Predict the structure.
Amino acid sequence: MPTSDILHPPPPHISIGLYSEHGERDLYARIYRSLMKRGADTDTRIGIAPQSTGFAMVSDLGDFYQEINLPLDRISAIANGNDCDYRPIRTGIRLGKVNISLGYDWSTQNDDHAVSLVMHAGPLGIPDHLQSPRGRKQARRAGREFISLSRSVCDDVDPLYATAGVEVSTPTPHTLKDQTLDTGGFFLSNRLLKRSSTLKNLLAAHFPKENTDTWNTGVFFSSWGQLNATGSSMQITKEGADEIKALLIRSAKF
């Protein structure tokens, strides 16, 4: 894969997007450091904008957005939020054989984004019912690797919440009100779950044990079997998802 493609992985995409109440710039830097701790390498090409520039969508930046090659020490400073001139918008990262584009999900407000790790979905991008037996094994292996990465980052960063899946965008607290909650895979922090026993009970009623996984900083729920250890897929009705979303919004005081 050409070096420049790391910033723009080929579709279909699989991603995990993390949201923090402590601000997007701090979150971006902490995710970058988590990946470096895991043994990742930074690419020499980065997408940047002036340090003082805010945006809702990356396209809003227009000519203020640039993709340029820089020395690795400068890119590290930018990604860590320590550069006087530039802020990171997209950073290319290699973790083993996986190329990751670290960027921002869509939002409607300046400086209020989820930060996402976007990768080529590979076998996870093929619908389950179209998978061959060999393809299913490859997808299961890819799913385990994706969840291992997702857990590692969430354990390090402790986001308020996160969502994971193929061609998904993680909503901000503001945009969640007008979106359907994607239950394929989502993480809720312990501090969020502690705010409402009603929410915890509702999640327990909808998600069996095989569709939940307790992580160090919260719980990961998955209705898509590729994102859990047992391979168990399940259906949640729109009414059920809406009920969970309403309690989530209330509990998080969005």
